[in-house]
Structures are given as structure tokens and as C-alpha cells.
Amino acid sequence: MFMSISKSVVVPTLLLWAAFASRWVNAQLPMPSGLSPGDSYQLVFNTSAFTNGLSSDISIYNDFVQTAADAAGMGASQGVSWRAISSTASIDARVNAVVGANTPVYNTRLGQLEKIADGFSDMWDGSLDSFPSYDEYGQSNTTDAWTGSLTDGLRAPGSALGDASGTAWCGRPSLVDGQWIHFFEPSTSISLHVYALSEPITVTDADFNGDDRVDGIDFLTLQEHLGTTGASATHANGDANGDELINSADLTIWEMQFDSSASLGTAAATVPEPPVLVLALLALGPFLSRRPSLGLRQGETLHYFSRR
Ligand SMILES: [Ca+2]
Ligand SMILES: [Ca+2]
Ligand SMILES: [Ca+2]
User: Fold this and answer.
1) Which ligand is the nearest neighbour of the Cα of 258?
2) What is the pLDDT of residues 190-219, one digit of tens each?
3) Residues 97 and 219 in one domain
4) Which of 173, 202, 231 represents a domain boundary (last residue)?
5) What range defines the domain where residue 291 resides?
6) For the chain, how many structural domains are there in total?
7) Same domain for 260 and 185?
8) Residues in the chain with pLDDT < 50?
């Protein structure tokens, strides 16, 4: 069923690549360097927006940080939920915003995430390794955040958010000792930021050949090994999420990370000869039928280059 390459079929291929490029609109989650696909990490940011500390309902603060994450493309669009690192009279910050026992936590510093803790114990031992002083866009944000908490992440008795005292503890993001969360105790009527913690995020990487870009070459690698499981399902073979399966989940990650700036010309030129065009639906049909977001309408055909 393979077709020989010809100018007439290269044209629709070009059009398809253009379609891919225009559809990659979701921002990627900030990802730390030095981790491998399948590893987990969590992110902390200090909201760019302000709120008061009057409510004793923790869901108010959780919704506040989720809204910030959503607006920055790090929340609902990525399937990631966020919690406020905040205490009320009825819940402790470290219970509301759970850090995994051995899950590293990073700030959102633009361009270079910094690790602030190695896991639960390190997070709540009274000091951080780096400043939690970046907002949901990765910009510096050193203004105080409501916490209602002590340095170990437990609620501050009588001074948690929404308490009748009318005051609550806040943290100063420019300090990495316990004062990042327990700095001073202003009136809850003033407006401050809120620290947000993500749920654990799995490291993914669709750059299978390690050339620092996610393009058609990586797609070919994935396609060649589609369906592979176990020890052969390596990152180099197309396992983008480290689960030792090469399947539609990896295709989705490739789609999300696809580098729209990568030119077709370069990609096509570096594919080993003899290049032929394949009807991709032969291989991907079952996945495409469950992935309408890949951009194909019913009856349309996906063409791409193959090494075979
Ligand atoms: Ca620590
Ligand atoms: Ca690559
Ligand atoms: Ca996989």
C-alpha cells in the first residue's frame, strides 16, 4: 500500500504540516531540567493576582490559584489541578496542598526552574532551597502571600485565614527560611497573593533523538515503534512519558510539544532515503478515531514521510 513519492502528493503533505503548526496553541507546562520521562515533579508559584484573607473556606483559595493557573495555560488545559498553600481553622496548608514524599518541588522561574524542596520533609523543615517568588507566568513576584500557616505547614492557631481575630499570617517570597510562609500577621482585609502548588506532573519528552526540537523526525520514530511495549519501549524509540508503552498517549505528547517553528524542508531533507509517502491511517487509524483533535476530519487522510 506504499506509494512512491511525487510532487502531487508532497503538496498536501505541506498543507498538513501547516495545519499542525497552526493548531499548537497550548503553552507547555514548565519542565525542570535533569529529570527523565516518567519522573514526577510539582510546581509552586505566587499568584500575580491579589485577594484578601477574610474567608475561612479553603475552596475560595483553591479556586483562586486554579483560576490563575488556568489563565496561564498550566491548569485545566493541561489537566493539572492546583491547591493553595494556605491554612484555615479547619485545614492545614500541608494537608490541603500535598507534597509527595519524594517528589521534587520547583518554582516557576522563567527559563530555568529552581528546585525549592526534594519532597514533603524538605518542604516543611523550616527552609526552602530556592525562592517561591515567581508567578504563574514565570515572572518575579516577591510580594507577600497569604498562608495562615506556621513554618511546618500547619495552621497558625487563631491566625489562620478567615479567623475571627481579623489577622492571619502571610509569607514573604524573597526569604527562604521559615519566613517564606510565616513572616508577619496583617489584617485579613488587605490584599496579598497566594502560593499555589500543583499536583504531581509527569515529565514528558517527545524529542526522541535529542536534537532539542520536536519535529517530524521524532514523529517517524514514534510511528515506527507504535505498539511496542516493555524494555524495547525506550525514550529513543518513542516513549514520551516513560511508561514503557509506545501508544496514542505518546502521540498526544508529540502533538502538544510539536515545534511549529521546525521547517518541513529540514525535516524532509534529513529523512533517510528512499522517502516514500505512506497512508498514515493504516497505522494510526485506531488512534485517530479516538483523537479527533489531531485535526483530521472524517474521510481526510494524513500523509507523512516514512523511512520504510
Ligand atoms: Ca527544606
Ligand atoms: Ca528531535
Ligand atoms: Ca509511553
Assistant:
1) 2
2) 999 999 999 999 999 999 999 989 999 999
3) no
4) 202
5) 7-28+205-306
6) 2
7) no
8) 1-26, 263-308
Residue 135 is assigned to a structural domain of this protein: yes
Rounded to the nearest angstrom, the distance between the alpha carbon of 151 and the centre of ligand 1 is: 10
| Co-location of 18 and 97 in the same domain | no
DSSP labels for the chain? Answer: --B---HHHHHHHHHHHHHHHHH--SPPPP--TT--TT-EEEEEEE-SS-B-S----HHHHHHHHHHHHHHTTSSGGGT--EEE---BTTB-HHHHSPPPTT--EEE--TTS--EEESSHHHHTSSB-SS---B-TTS-B--S-EE--B-TTS-B-TT-SBT-TTSB--EE-TT--BGGGT-SB--BTTS-BEEEEEEPPEE-----TT-SS--SHHHHHHHHHTTT-BGGG--GGGT-SSSSSB-SHHHHHHHHHH--TTS-HHHHHHHSPSSPEEEETHHHHHHHHHH-GGGSPPTT---EEEE--
pTM: 0.75
Could you report the per-residue pLDDT of 184-194, keeping only the tens digit for each? 999 999 999 99
> Could you tell me if residue 34 is inside a domain?
no
Which residues line ion ligand 1, judged by CB < 5 Å? 122, 125, 127
Of 182, 202, 222, which residue sits at a domain end?
Answer: 202
CA 172 to ligand 1 centroid distance, Å: 16
In a domain, 64, yes or no: yes
Domain identity same for 95 and 211: no
pLDDT of 7: 41
Residue 142: give its domain's CATH number.
Answer: 3.10.100.10
CA of 58 to the centre of ligand 1 (A): 25
